[in-house]
Design brief:
Length: 101
């Protein structure tokens, strides 16, 4: 939603590029700080969001976490899933994959 307000052409270009990288909804990236909160957004970022074929449920969200924070994020798994699904308005994501950098 935030990106849509910037410029319709910019949103379409960005959305197409993000879809190629596994993000069917560009708003997840733009709204990440709002979804998980500013503190968590400083040390994490979404990498990809994938769904089973022909479905928008039971998705897997891959999140990048820096260094030792990956362990903390593992303990916050349920909270992150709850916030992401609250953003979508339904249970879209059931798995959180954490990649440590």
């Amino acid at each position: 939603m935030v990106l849509k307000n910037a410029h319709p052409v910019l949103f379409k270009v960005a959305e197409a590029a993000l879809k190629k990288r596994g993000f069917p909804n560009a708003d997840v990236i733009m709204a990440w700080p709002k979804i998980v909160g500013p503190d968590l957004a400083k040390v994490t970022h979404p990498k990809s969001l994938s769904f089973p074929a022909h479905s928008r449920r039971e998705g897997t969200l891959t999140v990048i976490a820096g260094g030792a924070f990956a362990l903390n994020l593992e303990m916050m798994r349920l909270l992150v899933l709850e916030r992401v699904n609250l953003y979508f308005g339904y249970t879209a994501v059931t798995r959180l994959r954490i990649v440590q950098t």
